[in-house]
Amino acid sequence: MSEHRAQLRWKRTSHDFTYESYNRAHEILFKDGDIVLPSSSAPEFRGDPERVDPEEAFVASLSGCHMLTFLAICARERLTLDAYDDDASGRLEKADGGRLWMARVTLRPLVRFALGIAVDAELLAAIHHHAHADCFIANSVKTEVLVLPRA
Fold it and tell me: What is the residue-wise DSSP string for the chain?
Protein backbone atom coordinates (compact mmCIF):
# COMPACT_ATOMS: atom_id res chain seq x y z
CA MET A 1 0.00 0.00 0.00
CA SER A 2 2.73 2.47 0.90
CA GLU A 3 6.43 2.61 1.59
CA HIS A 4 8.05 4.62 4.36
CA ARG A 5 11.71 5.53 4.37
CA ALA A 6 14.34 6.69 6.80
CA GLN A 7 18.05 7.18 6.26
CA LEU A 8 20.68 6.70 8.93
CA ARG A 9 24.12 8.33 8.97
CA TRP A 10 26.97 7.42 11.33
CA LYS A 11 30.67 8.17 11.10
CA ARG A 12 33.42 7.16 13.48
CA THR A 13 34.83 10.08 15.46
CA SER A 14 37.11 8.13 17.80
CA HIS A 15 40.74 7.31 17.13
CA ASP A 16 40.23 3.61 17.78
CA PHE A 17 37.21 1.36 17.54
CA THR A 18 36.58 -0.54 20.76
CA TYR A 19 33.30 -1.06 22.57
CA GLU A 20 34.37 1.50 25.15
CA SER A 21 35.52 4.14 22.68
CA TYR A 22 33.39 4.24 19.55
CA ASN A 23 30.80 6.98 19.29
CA ARG A 24 27.12 6.07 19.30
CA ALA A 25 25.89 9.42 17.99
CA HIS A 26 24.23 9.30 14.58
CA GLU A 27 21.48 11.03 12.64
CA ILE A 28 18.24 9.67 11.28
CA LEU A 29 17.02 11.55 8.24
CA PHE A 30 13.45 11.72 7.03
CA LYS A 31 11.83 13.37 3.98
CA ASP A 32 14.99 13.16 1.86
CA GLY A 33 17.05 14.76 4.61
CA ASP A 34 14.72 17.69 5.30
CA ILE A 35 14.11 16.41 8.85
CA VAL A 36 17.07 15.28 10.93
CA LEU A 37 16.68 13.48 14.25
CA PRO A 38 19.87 13.49 16.36
CA SER A 39 20.11 9.94 17.70
CA SER A 40 22.32 7.74 19.82
CA SER A 41 22.15 4.62 21.91
CA ALA A 42 20.59 4.93 25.36
CA PRO A 43 22.87 6.32 28.08
CA GLU A 44 22.93 2.86 29.69
CA PHE A 45 24.71 1.68 26.54
CA ARG A 46 27.25 4.52 26.39
CA GLY A 47 24.97 6.78 24.39
CA ASP A 48 24.43 10.53 24.41
CA PRO A 49 21.54 11.42 26.76
CA GLU A 50 20.80 14.55 24.71
CA ARG A 51 19.87 12.47 21.65
CA VAL A 52 16.91 10.19 20.97
CA ASP A 53 17.68 6.51 21.42
CA PRO A 54 15.98 3.67 19.48
CA GLU A 55 14.00 2.55 22.51
CA GLU A 56 12.53 6.03 22.97
CA ALA A 57 11.74 6.23 19.26
CA PHE A 58 10.00 2.86 19.48
CA VAL A 59 7.82 4.07 22.38
CA ALA A 60 7.08 7.31 20.54
CA SER A 61 6.14 5.40 17.39
CA LEU A 62 3.59 3.28 19.25
CA SER A 63 2.24 6.33 21.08
CA GLY A 64 1.95 8.39 17.90
CA CYS A 65 0.27 5.61 15.94
CA HIS A 66 -2.27 5.01 18.70
CA MET A 67 -3.04 8.74 18.92
CA LEU A 68 -3.45 9.15 15.17
CA THR A 69 -5.74 6.11 15.00
CA PHE A 70 -7.72 7.41 17.99
CA LEU A 71 -8.12 10.83 16.33
CA ALA A 72 -9.30 9.21 13.08
CA ILE A 73 -11.92 7.16 14.90
CA CYS A 74 -13.18 10.20 16.81
CA ALA A 75 -13.34 12.30 13.64
CA ARG A 76 -15.36 9.61 11.84
CA GLU A 77 -17.73 9.45 14.83
CA ARG A 78 -17.94 13.24 15.01
CA LEU A 79 -16.48 13.29 18.52
CA THR A 80 -14.48 16.53 18.43
CA LEU A 81 -11.28 16.56 20.48
CA ASP A 82 -9.46 19.62 21.76
CA ALA A 83 -6.36 17.92 23.14
CA TYR A 84 -4.58 14.59 23.40
CA ASP A 85 -1.54 14.02 25.60
CA ASP A 86 0.31 10.81 26.33
CA ASP A 87 2.90 9.93 28.95
CA ALA A 88 4.15 6.72 27.35
CA SER A 89 6.90 4.47 28.65
CA GLY A 90 8.63 1.32 27.50
CA ARG A 91 10.19 -1.47 29.51
CA LEU A 92 13.40 -3.08 28.31
CA GLU A 93 13.70 -6.55 29.83
CA LYS A 94 15.71 -9.72 29.48
CA ALA A 95 13.91 -12.51 27.65
CA ASP A 96 14.59 -16.21 28.04
CA GLY A 97 18.18 -16.72 26.99
CA GLY A 98 19.19 -13.30 28.28
CA ARG A 99 18.44 -11.22 25.17
CA LEU A 100 17.10 -7.74 25.74
CA TRP A 101 13.80 -6.72 24.20
CA MET A 102 11.11 -4.08 24.62
CA ALA A 103 8.73 -6.31 26.52
CA ARG A 104 6.09 -3.76 27.33
CA VAL A 105 5.02 -0.30 26.26
CA THR A 106 2.44 1.50 28.35
CA LEU A 107 0.46 4.35 26.85
CA ARG A 108 -1.21 6.75 29.25
CA PRO A 109 -3.37 8.93 27.02
CA LEU A 110 -5.27 11.87 28.42
CA VAL A 111 -7.88 13.26 26.04
CA ARG A 112 -9.99 16.36 26.25
CA PHE A 113 -13.10 16.48 24.14
CA ALA A 114 -14.63 19.73 22.95
CA LEU A 115 -17.27 21.46 25.00
CA GLY A 116 -20.60 19.71 24.58
CA ILE A 117 -19.09 16.33 23.58
CA ALA A 118 -20.04 13.73 26.19
CA VAL A 119 -17.96 10.56 26.24
CA ASP A 120 -18.34 8.26 29.23
CA ALA A 121 -15.63 5.91 30.50
CA GLU A 122 -17.10 2.91 28.67
CA LEU A 123 -17.14 4.63 25.28
CA LEU A 124 -13.66 6.07 25.86
CA ALA A 125 -12.33 2.59 26.64
CA ALA A 126 -14.01 1.20 23.53
CA ILE A 127 -12.44 3.88 21.31
CA HIS A 128 -9.00 3.20 22.79
CA HIS A 129 -9.51 -0.54 22.27
CA HIS A 130 -10.49 0.06 18.64
CA ALA A 131 -7.51 2.40 18.16
CA HIS A 132 -5.12 -0.19 19.57
CA ALA A 133 -6.58 -2.93 17.36
CA ASP A 134 -6.18 -0.75 14.25
CA CYS A 135 -2.78 0.79 15.06
CA PHE A 136 -0.36 -0.17 12.26
CA ILE A 137 2.66 -0.15 14.54
CA ALA A 138 1.04 -2.14 17.37
CA ASN A 139 -0.01 -4.71 14.78
CA SER A 140 3.62 -5.00 13.69
CA VAL A 141 5.30 -5.86 16.99
CA LYS A 142 5.26 -8.64 19.56
CA THR A 143 5.70 -6.18 22.44
CA GLU A 144 2.80 -6.05 24.87
CA VAL A 145 1.14 -2.65 24.50
CA LEU A 146 -1.01 -1.50 27.40
CA VAL A 147 -3.37 1.45 27.05
CA LEU A 148 -4.24 3.05 30.40
CA PRO A 149 -6.35 6.14 29.72
CA ARG A 150 -6.01 8.91 32.30
CA ALA A 151 -8.95 10.89 33.52
Answer: ------EEE----SSS--TTTS---EEEEETTTTEEEEE---GGGT--TTSB-HHHHHHHHHHHHHHHHHHHHHHHTT--EEEEEE--EEEEEE-TTS-EEEEEEEE-EEEEEPTT----HHHHHHHHHHHHHH-TTGGG--SEEEE--B-
